[in-house]
TrEMBL record:
<keyword id="KW-0732">Signal</keyword>
<feature type="region of interest" description="Disordered">
    <location>
        <begin position="1"/>
        <end position="27"/>
    </location>
</feature>
<protein>
    <recommendedName>
        <fullName>DUF306 domain-containing protein</fullName>
    </recommendedName>
</protein>
<feature type="signal peptide">
    <location>
        <begin position="1"/>
        <end position="50"/>
    </location>
</feature>
């Protein structure tokens, strides 16, 4: 394929002719390659930004059963809002049973701990009973895998649930 265009130079008119290999136009491949390059750069920047976020952000898990979801029951959620600065983590947590029958609003400063790579050792204090638990959070597949390992300090009144998530996979909440 031969593509031609005329354009004027100081010395007069000249004919610019471009012949592509195998009859193809080199420009026809430039746009898809440029789009691919831009897409790859955007993906790399997004991945780097996600890695920089670490544990910082809001994390949530829906604790309702499928039947409760179908009935659109309120509450039934546990969440962490965390801020990572270097190896240190601080934040808040909440948990509420489906139907909002029992709520632990945890509050600001109810979570603190330390990061080691993709893992964090966290101490969570119940705003409901004062119970303190120790657990492990792991960044995994874009989410936060949480598991309570032990109760560090019992709360009051004895026997009342502190309403701190025992185990679950929380999704990052995007705004």
């Amino acid at each position: 394929m031969v593509e031609g265009s005329s354009h004027r130079h100081r010395a007069g008119w000249s004919e610019a002719v471009r012949v592509g290999r195998r009859g193809g136009d080199h420009r026809s491949m430039a746009r898809p390659r440029a789009r691919l390059l831009v897409s790859l750069m955007a993906l790399a920047m997004h991945s780097a930004h996600a890695a920089d976020e670490g544990f910082s952000g809001a994390w949530s898990i829906d604790l309702r059963t499928p039947a409760q979801r179908a009935q659109r029951a309120g509450c039934g959620e546990a969440s962490f809002v965390l801020e990572q600065t270097g190896r240190r983590i601080t934040g808040a947590h909440t948990m509420a049973t489906a139907g909002c029958g029992r709520i632990n609003e945890g509050g600001e400063g109810s979570v603190h701990g330390e990061v080691d790579g993709d893992h964090a050792l966290l101490f969570v204090t119940s705003g409901r009973t004062g119970t303190v638990v120790k657990g492990r959070a792991t960044l995994k597949g874009g989410g936060l895998d949480w598991e309570t390992s032990e109760e560090v300090r019992a709360g009051a009144p004895m026997g009342d649930s502190p309403l701190i998530l025992g185990k679950g996979f929380l999704a990052r909440v995007r705004k």
